[in-house]
Amino acid sequence: MSIILKQHIDEISPLTDDEFAFVLSHFTVKKFKKHQYLIQEGDLVQNDYFVVSGLLKSSHTDARGKEHILQFAMENWWISDPQAYHNQTPATLYVNCLEDTETLAITLHNREKLCVEFRKMEYFFRKKTTAGYIAMQKRVLSLIGSDSKERYLQLIEQYPQFRRLPKTMIAAYLGITRETLSRFEAS
Amino acid sequence: MSIILKQHIDEISPLTDDEFAFVLSHFTVKKFKKHQYLIQEGDLVQNDYFVVSGLLKSSHTDARGKEHILQFAMENWWISDPQAYHNQTPATLYVNCLEDTETLAITLHNREKLCVEFRKMEYFFRKKTTAGYIAMQKRVLSLIGSDSKERYLQLIEQYPQFRRLPKTMIAAYLGITRETLSRFEAS
DNA sequence: CGCGCGATTGAGTAATTTCAAATCTAGTGG
DNA sequence: CCACTAGATTTGAAATTACTCAATCGCGCG
Question: Which of residues 54-73 of B touch A (CB under 8 A)?
Answer without folding.
Answer: 60, 62, 66, 68-70
